[in-house]
Amino acid sequence: MANIGKKHRQAQEKVAFKDPVDLKSALKAVVDTAHAKFDESVDIDVVLGIDAAKGEQNVRGAVVLPNGLGKKVRVIAFVKGEQEEEAIRAGADATGGDDLVEKILGGWLEFDAAIATPDMMGIVGKVARVLGPRGLLPNKKVGTVTFDVKEVIAELKKGRVSYKNDKTGVLHAPVGRVSFGVDKLAENLTALMRAVVASKPATSRGQYIRKVVVSSTMGVGVLVAVDGIV
Description:
Blueprint: H1 2-14, H2 23-33, E1 41-48, E2 60-64, E3 75-78, H3 81-90, E4 94-96, H4 98-105, E5 113-116, H5 121-124, H6 128-131, H7 149-158, E6 160-164, E7 170-177, H8 182-198, E8 209-216, E9 222-224
Helix pairs in contact: 2-8, 3-7
């Protein structure tokens, strides 16, 4: 732990910029100071100019990152009949209805995303309290409640990221891994930010993107200059 603490302090010294820096400089600092023995995730935190207490100002959506997330995405599908056959052909890692519900209620959570056809949402409701807090509950607003299971599964496998602000108005999302390098990370982050900007609530007033920070899993956050990100 002492060694990790030392490396973290050294990283803090290297990224102690006086002012926010441009996107690529921020990402280079994150990549250069990553010190874990595994390929760390690179994440973004965005402070939004919204009133998160007002439902109509909450920001949520999804975007397919051009360079993916650098990991295998395990997708389950609550489907039946022809849609189940289609989901299997599309590469779903598990499919079903009540049988999936029973597995999840029994503690099984070995998946990264879940989709459902609209006619299966009654069944999905049985595990809403389990999946909801983990961000795994199929949701029409982000396109994971659909009859077009083939396309959505393909997008999720490629690196489709869902985003949603928390109760403080901050949005958190992954944009790739340290091994991607600066250019690919910048492409992913720009795609995400464009989607977030497009999701701006009509009732939001003033500066919408107030603060942007990038960091790796074990690294130090770097403040990005908001102007010029998108």
